[in-house]
Amino acid sequence: MRVIRAIYGCIESALAWYTLFTETLEGLGFTIKPYDRCVANKTINGHQCSISWHVDDCLASHQVLDDLALIMIKEFGDMEISRGKDHSFLGMEIELTDGVVKLSMKKQINKLITDFERVWLFRQ
Q1: At residue 104, does pLDDT exceed 70?
Q2: Per DSSP, what are the bridge partners of residue 57?
Q3: By residue range, what is the domain housing residue 119?
Q4: Model confidence over 3-23: pLDDT tens digits?
Q5: pTM surpassing 0.70?
Q6: 43 and 18, same structural domain?
Q7: Of residues 85, 110, 105, 107, the one with CA closest to residue 95
Q8: Quick one: 66 and 118 in the same domain?
Q9: 48 shares a domain with 11
C-alpha cells in the first residue's frame, strides 16, 4: 500500500508542476504544441523561440534568452543557465558549430555500460 501511495503522490505532484509550468508559458504567450505537450513556441522579434522540457530540465533557443531567463527566474527561482555552443540536456551532449547541431549520447552510454558492469560484477 505504501508503494501505491508514493507513486500516486508522485503522479499528482508531476501533474501539478506540469500545469503550473505550462500555464506560466501560456501566460507569456507561448503555444503548447499538440503533438508534443512538452514543447512550446512563441514568435519573438520575428523569430521562433522554442522551449522543450522534461520535468524541470528545459532547453530553449532564441536570440532573447536573457529576457526569458529573467522571467523564469522570477517565476520559479534561481536556476542553472548554460550559455554558449556546448550544452547537456537529458543525457544528450549538444554542440553548435557553424550553423550545424551535433548530438551525442556517448557520455550517457558509457555511464550506462559502467553502471551495468558494476552491477554485474557485484552479483558475481
Answers
A1: yes
A2: 54
A3: 83-124
A4: 555 555 677 788 888 898 899
A5: no
A6: yes
A7: 85
A8: no
A9: yes
